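Researcher: We plan to redesign the surface later, but first we want a full-length starting point. Tokens attached.
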């Protein structure tokens, strides 16, 4: 098992977008509406994984507001999280469940450098083994922080809704159905996600992901 293609910069995203547009005319039509796709690369490490936990099951606006409070309070490192404890994290806006997850992540001692050298499915499995890290969170981290070009997050509601509209489906596809659809978009499933998020922004006039 080896690490696949890494999205390093805008040229990589453009290459993937061109491949998808050539493969499916509906992607080409969506790309004509969205224009060039965003890179969406983020730093690696504890803070980004914690930010992904904050984003779970809340709107992008709510997630951004909570994360902004946490950054302002310096709650972005394991020592700071552990020192703040439940009361400090509650004051920043975290739910009881996310407080538990934040504390568990702070105690886990994740080797983020080691993740960089692992294949996609191993990265996801390692992260999902942590309390509070579901597959969506692991896939978002792999896509944005590690730049994995062929990782997709079919559990994401914005991706599922964008797929419903773009592919003229009768109903929003299930996570399983969208994962199966995305098989045709390999080895650029991470760019397909970027395209669908951008398309969601066009058709819904709001962001689908932070």
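Model: Full-length starting sequence:
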């Amino acid at each position: 098992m080896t690490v696949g293609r890494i999205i390093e910069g805008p040229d990589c995203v453009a290459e993937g977008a061109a491949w998808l547009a050539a493969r499916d005319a509906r992607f080409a039509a969506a790309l004509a509406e969205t224009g060039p796709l965003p890179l969406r690369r983020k730093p690696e490490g504890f803070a980004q994984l914690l930010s992904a936990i904050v984003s779970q099951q809340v709107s992008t606006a709510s997630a951004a507001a909570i994360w902004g409070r946490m950054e302002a309070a310096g709650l972005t490192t394991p020592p700071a999280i552990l020192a703040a404890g439940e009361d400090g994290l509650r004051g920043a806006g975290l739910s009881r469940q996310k407080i538990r997850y934040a504390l568990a992540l702070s105690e886990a001692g994740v080797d983020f450098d080691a993740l960089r050298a692992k294949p996609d499915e191993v990265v996801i499995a390692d992260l999902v083994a942590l309390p509070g890290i579901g597959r969506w969170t692991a896939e978002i981290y792999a896509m944005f922080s590690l730049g994995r070009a062929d990782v997709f997050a079919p559990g994401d509601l914005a991706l599922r809704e964008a797929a419903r509209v773009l592919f003229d489906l009768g109903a929003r596809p299930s996570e399983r159905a969208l994962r199966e659809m995305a098989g045709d978009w390999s080895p650029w499933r991470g760019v397909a996600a970027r395209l669908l998020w951008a398309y969601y922004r066009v058709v819904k006039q709001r962001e689908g992901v932070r």
